[in-house]
Amino acid sequence: MAVRNVDELKKVLNSYISSVEITDVHTHLFSSDFGNLLLWGIDELLTYHYLVAETMRWVDIPCSTFWKMSKKEQADLVWDTLFIKNTPYSESCRGVLTILKKLGLDVESRNLENYRKYFSNMKVEDYIDKVLELSNVKTLVMTNDPFDDEERKVWLESYKGDPRFRAALRIDPLLNNWDNSWIKLKQWGYDVSGELTENTLKETRRFLSDWLDRMDALYMAASLPPSFKVPEDSPRSKIVEECIIPVSREKNIPFAMMIGVKKLVNPDLRLAGDSVGKGDINTVEYLCVKYPCNKFMVTMLSRENQHELCVAARKFRNLLVFGCWWFLNNPVLIEEMTRMRLELLGSSFIPQHSDCRVLDQMIYKWDHSKKIIEKVLLDKYSNILETGWVIDESEISRDINKLFGENFWRFLNA
Ligand code: RAT
Ligand code: ZN
Predict the structure, then answer these.
(1) Which residues span the domain enclosing 68?
(2) What is the number of domains present in the chain?
């Protein structure tokens, strides 16, 4: 059916965006095989590190006291500080309220104990079904770290799999902390040394290959500092070029670079203590041009990098830009970035990933982002209609499917 005016457009767009089946390309969630590694429920939601950072701006206690408290005590403090003594404006606070609302809980009551009761009666398998249904997420990609002992044990001993939860091999320690990680590789039976000799590089490739196979991973990923540079004379750069590039080429999977994290700027805040810095687009361009048969997914943390990243993607079809990451996952920036990307790249990008650390967050992260993406798309389609161009409903459906999933799968299969 042809869409000729803005009223029709609004209806059609809303119906497709509401019902689109989402592929969430980057989360920190786990299938139920992984037991306690999958976080869910109100106390986990309230102690999300985004909220911990906000809480610590108001309270007088030292961080060390906060970390000594039980999870429930921490959650109580966050609730009291950010929701009762202050108004929950921030995106992460609002997220908690959206979740409560969508679960049908009484938001007006502000009754934390009742919220706790709701979750205490829940079975995790049922709750996974419910959350994925509420958020329309069909497939999500986990972040899978073979250097994490608890997770590693599951992969080696008891992993069964759930088709909704796909794996991504996360290799931060290899790239950011080679001095310690080679010792682990050695303990695990790889014939490596601290020197990056030919044999060590070969064995490191074998390590990557083994884990990609074991996890049936869709891509390899790392979060990287603003100073991330290839080429340079460093173990990181050498491992990228001599191990990651050949292995991802051989397996035909992308290397996802998440660039711009300044780790532990405030170490007392632990997971909440990381910050942001501007990354170097030259490295992205260098890799894309030097390795045209390799695929790169890139997200950058600094707002200042977003324009040049879009421009880089115009030059290289082996570069897929994804998501509004972490400190960019706020309405003001999601809107700006989505507009910019549509204007520079058409629909050839992945507008968002959730980065959920707590299962329930799936409900708000997609709800909030979809509303913004819908608003931006409405503007863009309206601009097109103004010229006299007529859009078919099937074209809107096609575009939405690409943005919320197909672009990713197509890139993987390319
Ligand atoms: O967004 C976050 O929760 C961060 O702590 C990081 O996990 C980041 O998303 C990452 O994947 O490194
Ligand atoms: Zn993440």
Answers:
(1) 2-413
(2) 1
